[in-house]
Design goal:
Layout: H1 6-13, H2 52-79, H3 85-118
Helix pairs in contact: 1-3, 2-3
The chain binds zinc ion.
Length: 143
């Protein structure tokens, strides 16, 4: 069984698709509401670990703080030494409020793509009830 490339899994992840099978809305029933496994292939978020959310939180922090720190640095560099604090806050506070909302589901799917590279899938990583026909003895093939 061949794992999809990291680039392919990341392209799926940024569209909120399952990195493994590419299923649409596979894990999410709403922007914030998610289910425990992909509704297309049965792959679970948690695959025998206890810290999946920590990785997703790290991805969310990078996705939200990275652009803010970059924009802060650029604005400061362009307006130095009279830093335009008020316009900077007016421009960046809305961004700081919107980015975490946008990043929430993507942080999970992006982290899962990296997790799938680091830890290969095993048959027990899939919810057998999701697969048509019930039980299976091998992970579904990625598409
Ligand atoms: Zn899937």
């Amino acid at each position: 069984m061949t794992r999809p490339s990291l680039a392919r899994m990341l392209s799926r992840a940024v569209r909120r698709r399952c990195p493994w099978c590419g299923g649409r809305r596979a894990f999410f029933t709403g922007w914030f509401a998610k289910v425990a496994h992909c509704r297309s292939c049965g792959l679970r978020w948690r695959r025998g670990d206890v810290g999946f959310e920590l990785g997703a939180a790290a991805v969310a922090a990078i996705m939200t703080l990275g652009p803010l720190v970059l924009a802060l640095g650029v604005i400061m560099a362009l307006t130095w030494p009279d830093i335009a604090v008020v316009p900077m806050l007016v421009a960046l506070v809305p961004v700081a409020l919107v980015l975490p909302v946008v990043a929430y589901p993507l942080s999970y799917t992006i982290w899962q793509a990296f997790d799938l590279v680091a830890r290969p899938v095993r048959p027990e990583d899939f919810d057998a009830e999701t697969i048509v026909g019930g039980a299976f003895d091998h992970p579904p093939r990625p598409s």
